C-alpha cells in the first residue's frame, strides 16, 4: 500500500516550471513599454485631460460716452 501511495502521489513541478519561465525571460525596452502605456492610457474619455480654452479678454467698446450722447441726440432727438 505505501508503494501504491508513492506512485500516485502528486509531484510538485514548481521548481522546474520556474526555471523554465525564467530562462526564456525577455524584457522589453523601458521606452517601448512607456510608449505603449501612454498610448493606452488616454483611450477612454474619462482619462482625457480637459481641454484648456484660452480665456478671452472682455472686449472693450470702441465708442466713447460722447459718441453715445451724440447718437442719443440724433436718434431720439434729446438735447
Can you put this structure into words, describing what you see?
- By secondary structure, this protein is mainly alpha-helical.
- It has a domain at 1-44.
- The protein is 52% helix and 0% strand.
- It contains 4 helices and no strands.
- It has helices at residues 2-8, 14-23, 30-41, 65-76.
Topology of this protein?
Elements: H1 2-8, H2 14-23, H3 30-41, H4 65-76
Low-confidence stretches: none
By DSSP (H or I, 4+ residues per run), the number of helices equals 4
Q: What's the total count of β strands?
A: 0
Mind summarizing the main beta sheet? none
Question: What structural category do the secondary elements indicate?
Answer: mainly alpha
Labels describing this entry:
single chain; 4 helices; rod-shaped; Active regulator of SIRT1; nucleus
Please summarize what this structure is:
This protein is mainly α.
Amino acid at each position: 500500500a505505501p508503494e501504491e501511495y508513492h506512485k500516485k502521489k502528486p509531484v510538485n513541478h514548481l521548481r522546474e516550471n520556474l526555471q523554465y519561465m525564467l530562462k526564456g525571460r525577455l524584457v522589453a525596452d523601458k521606452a517601448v513599454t512607456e510608449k505603449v502605456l501612454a498610448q493606452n492610457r488616454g483611450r477612454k474619455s474619462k482619462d482625457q485631460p480637459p481641454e484648456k480654452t484660452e480665456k478671452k479678454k472682455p472686449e472693450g467698446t470702441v465708442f466713447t460716452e460722447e459718441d453715445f450722447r451724440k447718437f442719443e441726440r440724433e436718434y431720439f432727438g434729446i438735447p
